Amino acid sequence: MIKRTLVIMILITGYISAQKIWKENSYKDFIDGKFTDAGANMYVSHKGRIQSINRADVNGDSNVDILSVNSHPLIEMLDMSSYWGNGKDFSIKNHSYIPANGPMWVTPADLNNDGHIDLVVANYSNGTWTGMESFVYYGGLSKDHVKKEGEWAFYPFKKIILLESSDAQKAAVGDFNNDGYKDIIIAFSAGFWEYRDKSKIGTSPSRIYWGSEDDYSSNSFSEIATSGATDVVTADFNNDGWLDLAFSNSEGGFSFLYFGGKEGFTEENLIQLPTINAQAVEAADINNDGLIDLIFANSDGDESYAYLNVNGKFDSNNKINFESYTAKDIVTADFNKDGYIDVFITNHQHSITGDPNLANRLIHSFLYFGSANGFSKENRQAIPTIGAWGANAADLNNDGWVDLLVCNFQEHYSFEVPSFIYWNSRDGFKETNRTPLYEHGAQGNAIADFNNDGSLDILITSMMGNSRGDYDPSYLYLGKDDGSMDVENKIILPSREGYEQAFADLDDDGFVDIILQNRGETYRTANEAWIYWNKNNQFSTWNVTGLPSLSGLGVQVADLDKDGFLDIIISNGTPHLKKDKTWPGSFIYWGSQSGWVVTERTELPTKMTRSCSIADINYDGNLDLIFGDQAGGLAIVFYGDGSRDYGIKNSIQFPDSQGSGN
User: Fold this and answer.
1) Spatial distance between the Cα atoms of 602 and 589, rounded to a whole number of angstroms
2) Enclosing H/E stretch for 29
3) What architecture is domain 6-72+469-653?
4) What does the alpha-carbon distance between residue 369 and residue 429 come to, in Å, rounded to a whole number?
5) Using omega within 30 degrees of 0 as the cis cutoff, is the peptide bond preceding 156 cis?
6) Exposure check for the chain: N or C terminus, fewer CB within 10 A?
7) Would you tell me how many other CB atoms lie within 10 Å of the CB of residue 9?
């Protein structure tokens, strides 16, 4: 510990013949002085120490230390995972990876009629961007093919072409203009929330790439209006000889059905069907009347919808409601061989509070059995799933029963959960009669005989691996005398989606403490800033104090009210608040002899901001707080007066400062 005492000696000559000593060494002695920057990084502690606030040396060895605050340990842009079928079961022992660029869904089809299955890979997000090209992989590569230098070839695909796309979700294949060539329609969504242009919500046209004898080209396409399309299915719903297109839309409250014809897909031939954040659409005759119906998976609300086809017309008067929870996909098949189509809906998660961050993913998905009396809750089976997303159905082991594939995305924090093949039989589906496939945040899938060996294969798209929102390690790297650092010479400090940190001797004991600001971007957004107390240069999770925050993005330290105790300023983000909720603002926790009393904090009316800046910007000797605004508002300064009276009445906003962060 270092104790500083200021000793001022004044020698006065003349009438006084002896030396006098003027000694100041207490808070009361020093507090009447002034710092040139009002104490932005210096203060007089209550114990009478004049010291810096923000430190770089945590363990007192005179070397700079660095704390790497870690969040987002997830892995993105994973390769597609292909399990090769043998007509019996599936295993990682008979498996290979196929490169991609962040697809959520893929669509198999023999595009060029050569007898080999090709694959449309709709690339959605690679972890940093969503405006990537989508791919067409052409099948037909033999297993013993010797790859040449520079050749693109990944068994069983021998060729790739690139198609311009953006935020691509799912594709469908069909001859939409009746010219004899297969066309590709790709549903373009509104994009991943973090990368999307907020000004373009509701304006996401999907795209048809036209087939020809010269293959597909990014120059040969037509756009079709959709509203955050998540899925597309094609069928001739009105039996006029032209394929129609049905889109599930995540925005606008309606999904779209376009009827095809000689004039193409026009708004005059558009039907809008009410849905709620629809994530998937399936076409099947679910009432055995010979007409193809539409089923939509609603991700919001507690129901998904089936619209019945009445002589080529669809409306809300002919609708079936299926109970579902954050539904992500739909599969239709006659699983029990009774002559009626059954409907399987993947339930991703359910929250009894309505807050998706507090939802449970260990819930069942629902298999509704069709019958002469239609569908009912009483005639359904609950299938155990884990944050279920995509699903598919096929007779995978050639026993005459349609089996069920479910892609499981995430449990609580972890994406490392198995997906399931539920094996069907005369006794139906059983929880223990399933094969686990150990994937990583699995979402989409495709079932086809990709290698043309007579057995069905399974291809799974995995969007994310590892975990998100868990208690992950942050690393304090300790500096050496030569200025270097060693990855082995570190202290591990757990955090929960940590975003920021501060080093300061908060309790004025001569040891530097650490504040670690936990964001909690997902799940528990009502989080805390953790104070790791330094006890003889040792840190422990058993010696931590927490200060409440709400999606906290930044933390700063200063003695704002000049009482000799350090204050802590936390910048809060917004956890997608509902309209009737107020913004969390930012918090000033006032230091005192009693610590940082939660009920005595000051709440500042900021919106989504990073760490504030602390400075005396009006040169009055008091510290001011400057906050940016990432929510589209203006940056703001709260002026200080040496007291705890910070607030809107003594503040100004900076013109033309929208979108500022720090």
Assistant:
1) 7
2) helix 27-30
3) 6 Propeller (2.120)
4) 12
5) yes
6) N
7) 9
Q: Residue 97: beta bridge partners?
A: 81
Q: Among the listed ranges 215-219, 299-303, 414-418, 578-582, which one has the minimum average pLDDT value?
A: 578-582
Whole-angstrom distance, CA of residue 305 vs CA of residue 170: 20
- Residue reference for tokens 């558009």: 270
Buried b (16+ CB within 10 A) or exposed e, 310-340: eeeebeeeebbebebbbbbbbbbbebbeeeb
CB-CB neighbours of 603 under 10 Å: 15
Who's near 657: CB < 8 A, 6+ residues apart?
628, 629, 634, 635
Return the beta strands (E) in 357-466 as ranges.
Answer: 364-368, 380-384, 388-394, 403-408, 418-422, 434-438, 442-448, 457-462, 464-465
* CA 513, chain centre distance (Å): 32
Q: Which two tokens stand for residue 101?
A: 């660029």
Q: Do residues 109 and 470 lie in contact, with contact meaning Cβ atoms separated by under 8 Å? A: no
pLDDT at residue 408 is higher than 80: yes
The answer to whether 385 and 347 are in contact (CB under 8 A) is yes
CA–CA dist 612, 615 (Å, integer):
10
Instruction: Using DSSP, state whether 465 is helix, strand or coil.
Output: strand
User: Cβ of 448: how many Cβ atoms within 10 Å?
Assistant: 21
pLDDT in tens, 458-488: 999 998 888 887 888 999 999 999 999 999 9
Instruction: For the chain, give every domain's residue range.
Output: 6-72+469-653, 75-465
Residue type, 229: A
Where in 189-292 does DSSP place strands (E)? 206-209, 221-224, 229-235, 244-249, 254-258, 270-274, 278-284
Q: Are 306 and 295 in contact (CB under 8 A)?
A: yes
The region, left, alpha or beta by phi > 0 then psi within -120 to 50, assigned to residue 654 is beta
Q: Considering the entire predicted model, what is its pTM? A: 0.87
- Tell me how far apart the alpha carbons of residues 584 and 550 are, in angstroms, rounded to a whole number: 7
For residue 164 the two structure tokens come to 């311009």
Q: Where are the beta strands (DSSP E) in 468-550?
A: 471-477, 490-496, 498-504, 513-518, 526-532, 544-550
Cβ pair 120, 85 in contact under 8 A? no
pLDDT (0 to 100) of residue 581: 58
User: How many CB atoms within 10 Å of residue 354?
Assistant: 8
Q: Which residue has the tokens 């840190």?
A: 539
Residues 6 or more apart from 642 whose CB is under 8 A from it?
Answer: 561, 562, 621, 622
CATH class of the domain comprising 75-465: mainly beta
The yes-or-no verdict on residue 292 having pLDDT over 50 is yes
Structure-token pair, residue 37: 């920057």
Furthest C-alpha separation in the chain: 120
Q: Is the pLDDT of residue 291 over 60?
A: yes
Q: Are 609 and 554 in contact (CB under 8 A)?
A: yes
